[in-house]
Amino acid sequence: MNSLRKDTLIAGLALFAMFFGAGNLIFPPSIGFTSGTAWLPSLLGFLITGVGLILLGIISVAKSGGTVDTFSERVAPWFGKFLGTLIILAIGPMLAIPRTGAVTYELAFQPHFDVPVWLVTAGFFLITLIFSIKPQGIIDRIGQILAPVLVFVMTVIVVIGIFDPVGSPADKGLESAFAQGFTDGYQTMDVLAAILFGGLTFAGLKSKGYSKFSDQLSITIKAGLIAASGLTFIYGGLLYIGATFSGADLPADIATSQLLLSIIESILGQAGLILLGIAITFACLTTSVGLSATVGEFFHKLSGGKIPYSALVVATCLFSWYFSIQG
Asked: How far, in whole angstroms, is CA 160 from its chain's centroid?
């Protein structure tokens, strides 16, 4: 494999892994469970906002120059900083990053170990810090080290769940299946992250020596297509698996996290819960690393280089750890 194809594949895997985080694991099985036989319209709605819009976001930021500023400069010169700050506040250390630590504890550690949440999340954000403390090579570290494990484990779960289902989709009487999928696809928050992750990928390609804009644009778009293809496959599999579980005798208001655990245990037994724990840990970790690096890079540039990138990443991890244990 030549270096161009290798870099494109690594960037695509990194994008997939950064997008596939906490909500991406939890929402699809829950949607399938509540949709039952109407799982296909739900999937279509979910893919429009959960995959289609993020692909458009990646392509848009790449074609405009690879940064939030160039992406939004047609509105006003100051709008990029305003928009970027709003997105960072929405998906940064106040909400999405802490969610990755909390979900890792709830689904990967709490079912197996009697260990306090503060200790698990402290370790989680320490690993996040190690992977994101240096801005150079972020995409490579995610795409080469973390993403392959995530892709392998999720593929195993999805393939077994599809070809050896626990049941058949039941009629749940859901009349707004498409709308539910459409809404929940947006709630993954990946549409907001697409602009920043697309810029992070673009910057990573520049640092690897791709100086021509045409090369940067081509690789970023191809990487986006790789990520979108992977997300479509995993989302479709997880949502269908949830639909095959829709006839199970479970409370209609069961928590989404408990539903996911019940589905995986029914398909794969206790070994499946361990496999799920690995998948959740890596899914949340890749998103946490990508977002932490993005927060550090954005505010480092916003301050004109006055605030060190490393200090911002440390602060992001500390704030995220604190909010992750608040419930």
From this structure: 22
Residues 6 or more apart whose Cβ sits within 8 Å of residue 326: 98
Residues 6+ apart with CB under 8 A from 270: none
DSSP state of 156: H
Point out which residues pair with 127 in neighbouring strands: none
The maximal CA–CA distance of the chain, rounded, in angstroms, is 59
Please give the average per-residue pLDDT across 36-45, as a whole number: 95
What pLDDT sits at residue 31?
92
Listed in sequence order, the residues at least 6 apart from 105 whose beta carbon sits closer than 8 Å to its beta carbon are 117, 120, 121, 124, 324
Domain boundaries, the chain: 3-324
* CATH dotted code for 3-324: 1.20.1740.10
CA proximity to 30, closest of 288, 248, 246: 246
Give yes or no for a contact between 200 and 297, defined as CB atoms under 8 angstroms apart: yes
By C-alpha distance, which of 200, 283, 195 is closest to 234?
A: 283
Determine the Cα–Cα distance for residues 201 and 11; give it in Å rounded to an integer: 7
Compute φ and ψ for 2, nearest 5 degrees: -75, 170
Task: Report pTM.
Answer: 0.86
What residues does 171 pair with on adjacent strands? Answer: 36
3-state secondary structure of 171: strand
pLDDT, one tens digit per residue, over 131-140 is: 999 877 888 8
**Sequence-ordered alpha helix ranges (H) in the chain:** 3-19, 22-35, 39-47, 53-64, 68-72, 79-91, 96-103, 117-132, 138-141, 147-163, 177-187, 190-207, 213-244, 256-302, 309-324
Tens of pLDDT, residue by residue over 225-243, are 999 999 999 999 999 999 9
Paired tokens of 254: 């069961």
Q: How far is CA 40 from the centre of its chain?
A: 22
Distance CA 194, CA 44 (A): 19
Average pLDDT over every residue of 245-259: 81
Q: What DSSP string describes 17-71?
A: HHHS-HHHHHHHHHHHHHHBTTHHHHHHHHHIIIIIHHHHHHHHHHHHTSSHHHH
The pLDDT mean for the chain works out to: 89
